[in-house]
RNA sequence: GCGAAAGUGGCGGAAUUGGUAUACGCACUGGACUUAGAAUCCAGCGGGGCAACCCAUGGGGGUUCAACUCCCCCCUUUCGCACCA
């Protein structure tokens, strides 16, 4: 007996990984070429762009990465089998705080730290055997990448899409920088969890609000996104339609503009409330007492957005309700936000919770103007702008005390009361009518407000993309000339971890010349939010050739020499930059427009749900900007989105502080990467959290060993029956049939029934896998069916002497084994590649990469009996075996012959009726 | 408070269209092999009952011949937003 080979995952994985990397198996062209080798040509193939969110090089790969990339790789490999031309790139999102914090802590250089981490992680990723096109690797902290970002910034600045303003911004003391609104979670910093405070600072913004409407409406076209994410973005954008109305201030010439979404309640307004930060606030104050109290409110509003209790001050001023002339007191109220709407509201306590609460506290009148819808139809005529009251309408009288005794506000829409000529209208009608009336008389206009704010991108940190702006005493803020890019991040900096950004203290960096007048100027020392890099990397990937800026070719690049750093823009090695260098400045593009248009949008994007309103919103915004700047013609970056759950252990997210971290490297060394990948796909469907289980990993390992062993078992056998050597099957006729999937029925008829049954099940798995891989991605169900099938093959093997097997058996068995290997290949590519090779490959190729997705093979075998569940009054009582496709009557009489059924139903006359689901179930009602 | 998702054995999870609930895996129990162990293989494995049967998909109602699946109410958990007028 031959010595049994054991499953040596180390050698197997090494062997295939080397092959993939050396042969660049997964590398694709920017645009498909005509005459490339079989299997990798993109011509006549449909493109498929598969992308996982690229990692921040924090040091080592963690389980979340493994899960993310295993999912992506499974999809990419599946699509290749299905005949797609697949772009599957990877890179590093390498600007960010950890590098700088490490620098402060260990006195290292952020760049070195980052590059070292990238090196480590690249080795780890390669050990996982992921099918990336490594030629497209991006390192965003490299100036060959971020210079384009600076270019975009300048072009956005010129279009007014990047601007600077003084504003109240979120400040994280621990990270020592400002944050965008999206990056504040529950009043805390998204990164470190520190409490956010408010600062008034000059900051750079991207005008994402210009795209609010498109960002919102395009959500409707993203059918491949989870509803959850779309809803989160929708809520974040927060569109609301309403009316802005001018209220004249009593005995003054000024007006106060308020915004409301409930114009129908305007007759119920009993006071106005304005934000403490409202520009008119101080002018309206009439008493010393109010002034003092307001100061306090202002002070509180300035440091925090948190609010415990509603507080306010009566200013002493009044405004006039333009609709009924009522004199309304004006309050300064802490719950009114300055940065939404107009910073002033009309308060209708009867119909708004907040106004109600405030009115109760300060004893302000509550006036009901909406009541429950009655069945009575309104008898008002609304024709265009005209509202005519019918003659015989009787007033709906509401008693005063009924209003005052309201225990809580009436929030729903209803029928208007106490609202002059609008009384009797429904809320919906009244909104329209009152808005029209306001517009007609010029006291108001319909407006749309968004909750979304512009994206604050200034960061007071070092390790980020420098903002290409200088401040000239004469010319003000001036962008660098495009040809002077990149503005490199200087490297000779010291990190104290205190006070301002290191850049702000670096004279050699700050000192600059004005690009317009040549005079003395100071450089902007803020860097860009690192979410900018990830907003467009998917587009950069589409172009392999690295078109770099000319290095040293532009003699007057004095701006760059000022920072006395290495001016070599040193992208990784083999860029054939000869032609690029000879060109002058930005005649080049960050990526080839044709390639971007060809590959984008990303067909499948995979990442954590935590980026639902940060990265995913910014990226959508950015591609629209790039489109409008003329770089590509694509509206949305990601066609389909899969948000995977977290990897948890003992019920909580893996983290150092909890001490429940599992290091992928340890597992790969112990079981091999196929096992680690398999477990992370098998233990839960991708969108759910994955509970890590060391014992479960062993189960996955066992399964792989079982596959390997059954292949070895049959390697011997299949060789003996000459399949491997193709003595019989090499006959052209047979080969032709196999290729065309037109098997000789007679030939297969000879095969074992057990094998044919297994084959039938295989056919089911092939179909089921295709549906799963087409969008639901519940790999766990595919894997479990494969496990079942492998178990059956073992069973078959147990009951069958190999020597009794015929050629037909061998052929069918090989088809089954090959198919199972191909189905599992996207999840465990190394061992499947190896096994496929051991068996001698398929009809067309010995390389599983190009074997194609398995075809359904009909053996002409149909099961002619089926198992039918017999229910009595809906309860399962028995099961019978019957010939397939029998009619209800036959099944019923068969059922009644069954012992267990007989016990319950002695005579057919007891049967009231029966319901029959063909070949499945009969329910007998008695 | 508002919005969304989820709740199935000891555990991870199946059941994609209403049609035999608990597939597959883990853990556990027993057995085989072994001096012994590991590994492997075989068998069992929702709860109750000797059994016939009964009870089980968070709880309670409903629709239906039939409900994990559809409808209503409630509970719990997770996530997002949180004075957005």
Quick structural summary:
The chain is of the alpha+beta class and 926 residues long. It contains 29 helices and 36 strands.
Topology of helices and strands:
Blueprint: H1 9-23, E1 47-52, H2 63-81, E2 85-87, E3 91-92, H3 97-106, H4 110-127, E4 138-139, H5 143-158, E5 162-172, E6 177-179, E7 184-185, E8 188-189, E9 196-206, H6 212-217, H7 227-237, E10 239-249, E11 255-260, E12 271-274, H8 281-284, H9 288-303, E13 312-320, E14 327-333, E15 344-347, H10 353-362, E16 370-371, E17 381-383, E18 386-388, H11 400-404, E19 415-416, H12 427-441, E20 444-450, E21 455-456, E22 458-459, E23 469-472, E24 476-479, H13 507-510, E25 511-513, E26 520-523, E27 527-528, H14 537-540, H15 558-561, H16 578-582, H17 593-599, E28 604-608, H18 615-628, E29 641-644, E30 647-649, E31 652-653, H19 664-671, H20 673-682, E32 690-691, H21 694-720, H22 732-739, H23 745-749, H24 753-776, H25 779-799, H26 807-824, H27 829-838, E33 865-872, E34 875-883, H28 888-897, H29 899-904, E35 913-917, E36 921-925
Parallel strand pairs: 1-2, 1-28, 3-4, 12-14, 28-29, 30-32, 33-36
Antiparallel strand pairs: 5-6, 5-9, 7-8, 9-21, 10-11, 10-13, 10-20, 12-15, 13-14, 16-19, 17-18, 22-27, 23-24, 23-26, 25-26, 30-31, 33-34, 35-36
Helix pairs in contact: 1-27, 2-20, 3-4, 19-20, 20-21, 21-25, 21-27, 24-25, 24-26, 26-27
The chain binds one RNA strand of 85 nucleotides through α7, β11, β15, α10 and β32.
